[in-house]
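Chapter summary example.
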Amino acid sequence: MVAVMTKTARPWVRYYEPGVPEELSYPSLTLGDILAETARKFPDTAALLFYGKKIAYRELDRLAGRFGRALQQLGVKKGDRVALMLPNIPQMVIAYYGTLRSGAVAVATNPLYHDHELEVQLKDSGATTLVAVDMFYPVISRVWKKTAVRNIILCGIKDYLPFPLNLLYPLKARWEKQWVSVRREPPIHDFVTLIKNADDGPVSADVQPGDTAILQYTGGTTGIPKGAVLTHRNLVVNAVQCRTWLTVRNEGEERILSVIPFFHVYGMTTAMNLGVLIGAELILLPKFHTKEVLATIAKYRPTIFPGIQAMYQAIGHFPTIERYDLTSIKAAISGAGPLMREVQERFEHLTRSRIVEGYGLSEASPVTHANPIFGRRKSGTIGLPWPDMDARIVDLETGERELPVGEAGELVVRGPQVMQGYWNKPDETARALRNGWLHTGDIAKRDDEGYFTIVDRIKDMIKTVGENVYPREIEEVLFTHPKVKDAVVIGLPHEEFLGEKIKAFVVLKDGMAATPEEIINFCRQELSKFKVPREVEFRPELPKTLVGKVLRRVLRDEELKKQEGMPKKEQMP
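The structure predicted for these 573 residues follows.
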């Protein structure tokens, strides 16, 4: 059994920045209450900025309340699930807080889901209402009647665009063949009309901090998706922790570049919930396009930029980057994967800001670790556990024996932001939550000062010639090659290697050329023989999720299909 950790067993606290305590006090409020509090403190401060259109906190609070009442008028009751299939547009923020105020549970849904993915999530969550952009209706129409959905609320991108963009957008959408016209007749309702017809009275739902706020689906890149049950308290706690860690904040004055998707809990917490908590202006961008992001930074001067390495990397490699003034940014936290030193240094040079690597997972709302923004940071690590967090490394065999400093094992965490369990999956819950600790599935190690380093995912570990090899170690070497822009490593079944052979997929920088032998020889100079990739394949890009995680499973499945079609002798290198 994992021993109970005491306060004295938190060596990392010594390296917190001044003003960051070991323990925090948290308001006994729901997320809807947090929005109301901010609206009272900063009523005229811009809450949302969408291509020049501003919505103040007073108005956002009113719109969220009206949406919550509109849901209740449609028959949505406390505990019902409402799926939000929306990108980062004003309707996402309005619907999110309105849904939570109504007492319903928000189900964050990827707008780019295909038929099967959407059907699986709607069925598993039991969502009875779906809120979406009308352009996604062709997918929705093929699925929703197979599920418990009985109300569909559609909105348009143009609904909250300023003049003349609201008139030009439909023309652009038609030109790009993305325009979808859907008649709003029950059970299909119009987002703006519902809000307009609702009143400004209080939403009566008796929502408590301990009530479930969202089902955050996770595991889709590695297996069957599972809905992490997160309460209002879980999410409020993580937002408060985030506010505390962000020592450069000035409440009511910050502007957060909000291009990281809100339907992913990383964006939901570090951009949307944090922004509302501190009265920041959320600069909304529905999708990451490098040139548009750079123009937005130069024009609207965001101060905080939560994102992922792929975003910062794209900015650093943009061919005319010197034309854009990015110096408004004060701080950035990179999540959803490792932050390579080259990307970190390039971004800091361009912005004169600080960017640090953090770590989290959907089951923890999500952030559990980060390097101090302006304190002591260690490149290549995920930093220190946040206030009120305990973390340790345990053995991979039993998950119960704590390992000594410097030894790699599974990272387990516990704290007030950890989920209640997986929706309707007691066996999965029991495997993930053991003796009060959340087992992350990540292999990590800790140094004597309390800084943690992710070695790799347990499921991604490669076994070759009797050795355990962690893909991230190889990838970090590949990233140091002057011609390499992006890279990922997988293991493939191969009897000659007594388990798996190592294959690298490499994206070269624009205008660069290289051979597989050149990349392999480079790795030989930096890695032990058994860690060197046996095969290198060049690709124009790597398959990734919307939050930038490389889909190793997709690459592995492609390779396995190739192997199935080969004579056995041809599978040998």
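To summarize the output: Residues 256 and 295 are 15 Å apart (CA to CA).
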